[in-house]
Design brief:
alpha+beta, Immunoglobulin-like, Neutral Protease, domain 2, 3 domains, five-stranded mixed beta sheet
């Protein structure tokens, strides 16, 4: 019993000491001068600047600021690397020598470009009119909803969601080859680092990139960021999709590199997209069928219409891509690949859609369109499919012909064995 009582007394004493220590600490804190008191009246300093975000939902900026004179105004400025306009907001604060400020941007109402670098800075003013602007800082706005797998080589980095290491390596191999071959053809300089993000469905891609009304879109390129975003599900035949989507989007990055950021804005849609279609690794029979059907029905789009952004509906977009690819292929075959380079240079210099054609090809826009239309010989749908897949069908038939004697030999041997 005595030992138990001593233990209780010891515990009570310890608690009393702890309470006393806490009280002393609180008194000392209360008596300690505020950090702001140590500042000169005109001095404003900031600490603990942070940014957190939930992709496609919200981004929160926060900062702690001190001043020798009460701060009564606070402004936040931010801008994506791809944007020319700086966004700004004034944040209400109660005048005080020390403030903690938080501001949340609702990204559904004011979306930021995905995978872009976001620069931000603050400005504070005190009641005496003194003002200070913080140094600009950056945050990378990537899709943090997922855990991305990654593989890299040289300037290329592949990020993907579904699939094992073979999936990522296949994408990297296709990207490496495409980058080398297309750059050689266009005479493009080596690009800066290229990041390729592969979503596992078009639905995920659409939600991430804000293209919900274009469910036919399987990819996007952002040349100014060196970023490509595509959708390739992890299922049989994924390499075929990669062989089309990756070279297509890499073409846009290389056209941008050839024309430079200042000149790329003048690139006609038909030329930029046509080059991308021609560089796809496998034929797209839907394009050929759409082109043939429109030609037969007299529904081909004019070349002037293809100078502008393409239609957003699936049929109109498919026909625009098909025509653009066909026109670029026609120019390359009739006039040479050097004329494609020449067109890029003409447009990079600010030439209009019609003038670029006249300067480089010596034709009017109508003249080029007429020659191209005349090159479209009438042919049925089945012939169109045969022309698109003829080489592959030929290989399959050859394989079957070679296999038949082997099967017959096997049957003969089996029959002999039974005898």
């Amino acid at each position: 019993m005595m030992r138990s009582r001593q233990a209780r007394l010891s515990t009570s004493a310890t608690r009393a000491v702890r309470v006393g220590c806490v009280a002393v600490v609180l008194i000392l804190r209360a008596a300690a001068p505020s950090p702001a008191n140590a500042l000169a009246p005109s001095q404003i300093v900031s600490t603990e600047s942070h940014v957190t975000y939930s992709f496609a939902d919200e981004m929160t900026f926060s900062i702690h600021a001190l001043s020798g004179t009460p701060i009564d105004r606070c402004y936040l400025f931010f801008r994506a690397a791809t944007e020319e306009r700086t966004r700004s907001v004034e944040i209400s604060v109660l005048p005080a020598p020390e403030i903690f400020v938080t501001h949340t941007v609702r990204l559904q109402e004011a979306p930021l470009p995905p995978f872009a670098s976001i620069s931000y800075w603050w400005e504070f003013r005190d009641t005496d009119g003194n003002r200070v602007t913080t140094a600009s800082r950056d945050v990378q706005y990537n899709d943090n909803r997922f855990e991305w797998q990654m593989v890299a080589d040289g300037p290329l980095t592949i990020y993907w969601l579904e699939g094992d290491a073979r999936f990522g390596q296949a994408a990297l191999d296709i990207a490496r080859t495409s980058l080398m071959e297309i750059a050689l053809e266009l005479g493009a300089p080596q690009p800066k680092p290229v990041s390729i993000y592969i979503y596992d469905s078009q639905a995920q891609l659409a939600r991430a990139m804000g293209i919900a009304r274009r469910d036919w879109a399987a990819g996007q390129a952002h040349p100014e960021l060196g970023t490509i975003v595509i959708a390739v599900p992890n299922r049989d035949g994924y390499t075929n999709q990669m062989a089309n989507f990756i070279p297509h989007e890499i073409s846009h990055l290389l056209v941008y590199a050839v024309m430079t950021p200042a000149g790329y804005q003048y690139a006609p849609e038909w030329l930029d997209e046509g080059i991308a279609v021609v560089n796809e690794g496998l034929p797209t029979p839907e394009y050929a069928v759409a082109l043939q059907q429109a030609a037969e029905d007299g529904q081909l789009m004019s070349l002037a219409d293809l100078c502008r952004p393409f239609p957003s509906d699936a049929y109109g977009a498919r026909l625009a891509y098909a025509q653009s690819g066909s026109i670029v292929r026609f120019i390359r075959e009739e006039y040479g690949v050097h004329q494609i380079r020449g067109l890029l240079q003409a447009y990079a210099g600010g030439a209009s859609c019609a003038v670029g054609i006249e300067e480089e090809l010596g034709l009017s826009m109508d003249g080029l369109e007429t020659r191209w239309r005349n090159s479209l010989a009438p042919r049925g749908v089945w012939r169109t499919y045969a022309e698109q897949y003829g080489p592959y069908i030929g290989i399959l038939v050859l394989g079957l012909l070679l296999a038949i004697p082997m099967v017959g030999l096997g049957i003969s041997r089996s029959s002999n064995g039974h005898r």
